[in-house]
Structure formats: C-alpha cells, structure tokens
Specification:
- The protein is about 50% helix and about 15% strand.
- The chain contains five helices and four strands.
- A hairpin with a 2-residue loop joins strand 3 and strand 4.
- It is globular, with a radius of gyration of 13 Å.
- The protein starts with a helix and ends in an 8-residue tail after the last helix.
C-alpha cells in the first residue's frame, strides 16, 4: 500500500472518534450494507465521519489491507476496528454496540 494512502487512512482513523469507511456518504449511501451501518449510527445519534471509498480506489483497497477485512463498510471507534455490517448490526441488537460506545466515552442517544 502506498505510504500516502496509508497516512490518509490512519489520519482519518486517528482524528475521528467514530469513523465509517463506506460506499457513498452518510446522506447518500451507495450500498445497502453501508446504509444499514450509517442508519444505526444515526438512530443512536452518534457523531461520525463517513469516508466514501468509491471516491478513491486506493483508499478502498487500502482500508481492506489495513484491517485485514475483505468488505466495506468498516467501522472504527477510537482507532479500534469494530467490524462490518453484520457484526455492527448484531452488536446493535444485543446491546454490545452501546456498551462499546460507553466504554470509549462516545456520546449517543440513550433509549
């Protein structure tokens, strides 16, 4: 992976407490999985940054190499890779996602 791309990815992960590498943007997701994760974060009113991997093929490939995870979307919370759509959805449903947000001191809307 190109050092510039590596730095760009690390910069986004380091500077955004909640960072979602996704296809499209939070307001206009380009795939159902990206939309699902983005919507869960919106339901919880989590302040997050969406990075559109469709804008840059190198970032799209680079984030997969960075996490050693083959698919997009990818959610990072306080520099920690959380997972893709299925994992985040499951964590949302069983309460693990809000536990993670609590433990990382990320504010969200409590039910």
């Amino acid at each position: 992976m190109d050092q510039k791309i590596k730095d760009l990815i690390l910069n986004e992960i380091d500077n955004n407490d909640v960072c979602l590498f996704m296809k499209g943007t939070p307001d206009a997701p380009q795939c159902g999985f990206s939309m699902a994760v983005s919507n869960l974060l919106k339901i919880l009113e989590v302040n997050f940054k969406g990075i559109n991997v469709l804008e840059n093929q190198e970032v799209r490939q680079g984030i997969k190499e960075h996490s050693d995870w083959p698919t997009i979307p990818q959610l990072y919370v306080k520099k920690e890779f959380v997972g893709g759509c299925d994992i985040v959805k499951e964590m949302y449903e069983n309460g693990e996602l809000t536990n993670l947000l609590d433990s990382k001191k990320i504010s969200y809307k409590k039910k």
